[in-house]
Give the backbone structure.
Amino acid sequence: MKIADLREAAMEWTVTIEGRDEYGEVQRAQLRIEKGFDKLTSGEIGLSIDDGKRIMSTLQEFVVKQELATYAQARRVCPSCERLRPVKDYTMRKIRTVFGTVEVKNPRWMLCQRCLPHISMPFTVLGEICPDRATPELMELTRLHQLSSIFAMFSGV
């Protein structure tokens, strides 16, 4: 490769995220980061803040979707008779996290008709663990930020 060709080339990085699901199957997600030679000549070496945000957002989306899918499958099993509860439907739900918002599949299961034959009522699985559509960590950080803003306002800082 000639020196002139190097100036036209782009560097490409691939970040692979790999994990095992509840069945032991390997799940992968990939993210590509490209950087042109012009970025290098202007001193932009290494990952940028935006690159880091993209990596963390992709990682968060991958992990959250897998964890919530596992939780939903576990909650589909009736705790009394251990049979699968019937599916009412699926909706999409946005969960806010410290690394961005993740849109996930939100199943609604019916109560077990074998154990509760006279009650026909669905329940939202993800509402149990994220009732505010946000992770507890984000809720706590938001609360602390609000408290510090109030303190700053009253202290004249």
About this structure: Strands lie at 10-20, 26-36, 87-97, 100-110, 122-124. The chain has a mean pLDDT of 86. The chain is about 40% helix and 30% strand. Residues 143 and 149 are 10 Å apart (CA to CA).
